Automatic annotation (TrEMBL):
Residues 340-477 form the RagB/SusD domain. Keywords: Cell outer membrane, Membrane, Signal. It comes from the Bacteria. The lineage of its organism: Bacteria, Pseudomonadati, Bacteroidota, Cytophagia, Cytophagales. This is RagB/SusD family nutrient uptake outer membrane protein. It is found in: Cell outer membrane. SUPFAM superfamilies: TPR-like. Belongs to the SusD family. Residues 28-206 form the SusD-like N-terminal domain. One of its GO terms (cellular component) is cell outer membrane.
Length: 477
């Protein structure tokens, strides 16, 4: 069991000479199992698993074109079932689900404080729902595993339908929000809360509605987002840069985030995405991918988020020569970089400590605005108020007098600008039916995509098809 969690101050004491048969007996066993459950998030959100598809498979970034072949294939939609990215998403999610199921199966019999126990169960249901939400967005219907898997025979399961997966996600989150605490203190800050469950369920409803203008899930999304807002626990930081500050981890804008520890249990958002070879980060920059001209030029000139989000030049620490960066120069050493999650206090390559934001209050406001517009077939005062709060912080003028369609498109753009490099873009394009048009429009750097309608789902990893004869591949692959 990997006893590393997303909470920096947790006791990571070694557990030796234990087995499944002798473990899960005491409150400390339960706590360690919960830590292990959270540790899977570090792998899923570190950099290459969910971040890459949501940047290069969409229209926000261009990969290093002579680098990882699977990343370039993803960018061009030369997708095959052996591509490593869908495989990593699948394996990380199901490992996380197994750890949640262990909690749900083995923690209830332990003699311990009942409130704490219920909280652990709520956390397990929240994280299981979160993993299934990732899976259903990426692959459609997937096997629903709701109990701890203890034998290979139990792993031969056919795919559930997409709606069956969504219904299970809804059930888990509804149950989680009734037992999770509203806040944590001390070393527990960063764990799943009632607000996180409500906010995630709002996002689930929004995604479940898809492109169906008559869907009942629009109203449910608006109501659940409002419940999260009405908790009175969340608000926007005054400055966009404050959202991503190391000092503000677990702060007032965060409903849920994956926490890292600088130079100890970090992420690759700093070294990985700095310009290739740039001597401004530990190990020099890797230039894994760069910002697209499409995204960069979408920001209004006075948008305060733009200089926070991107690195547009750097000064060599020795020669003091300034290197300007570009969204059109083909040299990966001169590409504008995603920068708002860079931890410049880090001294070890690939070990930045800034959080990976999963759900923050700005997104709740935008979900509320979008859902109200859809449910009412036009924006009301509350919808304008919500989106304009986000725009005000960015230094943009308030919106008013828009039609239903114009407001919808305004929210879509606001999400792109506010949430860039937070693992959202591909999911947004798919759920709103815009993936093909957006990808075809992003043709810079010789992108010659072969994207087809079936690419709105990823291929089931071939190794899973080989191991489980009950699995059927997604159409087109």
């Amino acid at each position: 069991m990997i006893l590393s969690g997303c909470v920096p101050d947790l006791d990571l004491a070694s557990k030796s000479n234990v087995s499944v048969g002798t473990y899960y007996q005491t409150p400390s066993d339960a706590k360690a199992a919960v830590v292990s459950m959270y540790s899977m998030l570090r792998s899923m959100y570190r950099d290459e698993v969910l971040m890459t598809p949501n940047v290069v498979a969409a229209d926000d970034g261009i990969p290093f074109l002579t680098g990882n072949a699977d990343r370039v294939a993803l960018w061009n939609y030369n997708l095959v079932p052996t591509n490593t990215f869908p495989g990593a998403i699948w394996s990380n999610a199901y490992t996380g689900i197994q750890r949640s199921n262990i909690i749900l199966n083995r923690i209830p019999p332990i003699s311990m404080d009942e409130t704490t126990k219920k909280g652990y169960v709520g956390e397990a249901k929240f994280l299981r729902a979160m993993h299934y939400f990732t899976l259903v967005q990426c692959f459609g219907g997937v096997p629903l595993v709701l109990n701890e898997t203890t034998s290979l025979a139990e792993a031969t399961i056919a795919r559930a339908t997409k709606d069956e997966v969504y219904k299970q996600i809804e059930t888990d989150l509804k149950e989680a929000e009734t037992v999770l605490p509203k806040i944590y203190t001390g070393a527990d800050v960063g764990k799943a809360t009632q607000g996180a469950a409500k906010g995630l369920l709002a996002k689930v409803y929004l995604t479940w509605a898809g492109t169906d203008a008559a869907s009942p899930y629009w109203a449910l999304a608006a109501a659940k987002a409002k419940e999260a807002m009405d908790l009175g626990l969340y608000s926007l930081w005054d400055n966009y840069s404050d959202v991503f500050s190391l000092a503000n981890r677990g702060g007032k804008e965060s409903l849920f985030e994956v926490l890292y520890i600088t130079d100890l249990a970090g992420n690759n958002f700093t070294t990985g995405y700095a310009p290739r070879g740039a001597p401004i980060v530990p190990g020099n920059g890797s230039g894994i991918f760069r910002v697209s001209q499409s995204l960069f030029n979408s920001y209004p000139a006075n948008d305060k988020r733009k200089p926070v989000s991107f690195l547009t030049s750097f000064v060599h620490p020795t020669t003091k020569v300034t290197t300007p960066l570009s969204v059109t120069d083909t040299d990966p050493a001169k590409g504008v970089s995603f920068w708002k999650l860079a931890d410049l206090t880090s001294t070890v390559a690939g070990n930045g400590g800034k959080s990976a934001p999963i759900l923050r209050y700005a997104e709740v406001l935008l979900m509320y605005a979008e859902a109200l517009n859809e449910a009412g077939k036009g924006p009301n005062a509350q919808a304008y108020e919500a989106i304009n709060k986000v725009r005000a912080r960015a230094g943009l003028d308030p919106l008013s007098g828009l039609t239903y369609q114009a407001f919808k498109e305004a929210v879509w753009l606001e999400r792109r600008l506010e949430l860039c490099f937070e693992g959202q873009r591909w999911f947004d394009l798919v759920r709103t039916g815009r993936l093909l048009s957006a990808v075809k429009a992003e043709t810079s750097f010789g992108r010659a995509t072969t994207i087809q309608t079936y690419h709105t789902l990823m291929p089931i990893p071939q190794r899973e098809i080989d191991a489980n004869p009950a699995l059927k591949q997604n159409e087109g692959y």
